[in-house]
Recover the amino acids of this structure.
């Protein structure tokens, strides 16, 4: 796990780097870099996506650090792999890929831009599974930034539990 001070704990083996495609900054935030550095120091496997935005910045940063213990998660096809790392097809579509990457990690660092619905849903899954998560939340409209540990009492996606209910119902009907 990577706590708020950026200290990696030994029990954590896989760190998931996840973020909004709307994150168009030229560089990763310092708070995020600190957590990645700690993960590298502790030899953690880093799982990262390949979509534009935050994921590409994560990949470019890891490549610049010449870090090799990286897995690039994708669904339909691999769109970006800056370091020619191992890639894993985590699912057939975006939702399945996101969920399986979350299930595969021990902890996460997430960049959430403009209250993205996909990331909001992922935050609910991370929270529900009790995965230690550092959240860097920002808005291009208000330019406000909030960074810290995932709040177990906060509702990131008010529709998550309704969607989950219907997803499980759909799965149950397929199984019969």
């Amino acid at each position: 796990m990577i706590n708020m001070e950026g200290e990696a704990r030994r029990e954590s083996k896989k760190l998931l780097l996840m973020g909004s495609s709307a994150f168009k900054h030229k560089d990763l935030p310092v708070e995020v870099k600190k957590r990645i550095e700690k993960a590298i120091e502790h030899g953690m496997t880093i799982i990262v996506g390949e979509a534009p935005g935050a994921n590409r910045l994560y990949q470019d940063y890891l490549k610049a650090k010449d870090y090799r213990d990286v897995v690039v998660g994708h669904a339909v096809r691999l769109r970006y792999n800056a370091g020619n790392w191992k890639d894993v097809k985590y699912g057939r579509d975006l939702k399945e890929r996101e969920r399986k990457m979350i299930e595969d990690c021990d902890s996460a660092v997430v960049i959430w831009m403009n209250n993205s619905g996909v990331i909001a849903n992922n935050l609910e899954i991370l929270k529900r599974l009790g995965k230690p998560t550092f959240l860097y939340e920002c808005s291009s409209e208000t330019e406000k930034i909030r960074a810290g540990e995932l709040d177990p009492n906060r509702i990131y996606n008010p529709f998550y539990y309704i969607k989950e209910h219907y997803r499980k119902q759909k799965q149950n009907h397929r199984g019969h």
